[in-house]
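debug: dumping io for the single-chain case to check the tokenizer round-trip. Nothing else runs in this session.
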Amino acid sequence: MARRSMREEIVGAGLAQFHERGFNAAAVKDITDRAGVPKGSFYNHFESKEALALVALERYGVEMRLTDLADESVEPVARIRRHFEFLRDGVINSELTKGCLLGNFGTEIIDHSETIRTGVRDGFTVWTELLSKAIAAGQQAGAIRQELDAGKTARYLLSAWEGTLIQARAFKSADVFDSFFDLTFEAILIA
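debug: decoded output
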């Protein structure tokens, strides 16, 4: 099996470092050490740590499997639930240490970096649009309450999700996910 390119090694290591340690604590040397590449090679591929952070955010969106929200072969409520279950399981598997990279960057760095603020905003926009379309499809199928505004509901659910992640990490307990799932799928969405 061929080795990934040096750029891909840096992206993978950067995403892992940012997700585990945050933007500020992830030094370029830590990233290149983790990637197993010389520190000088970082700047052959990225003009700055911020530039790498944008690519890491895009990669994170892929790893979140956001496109599963658009999978029309799965009933809309089921695909929304599966999406959040997948994300929850990832957080639990990380022993409640990683949270969401969008939310992490959103609380750590967006007030200090317009570049990253834009990347976080764009990530949330894509996520909101996909979730909104799944909600609208559920409304059309009669499975989700008609009176809900799909866009506002999507934004609300993402805000509730990000808050749930913070609580799960603060309490070091997966029990907080129960409230999110119970309210979302038994009270808010269900027609």
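debug: round-trip ok. The two ends are 50 Å apart (CA to CA).
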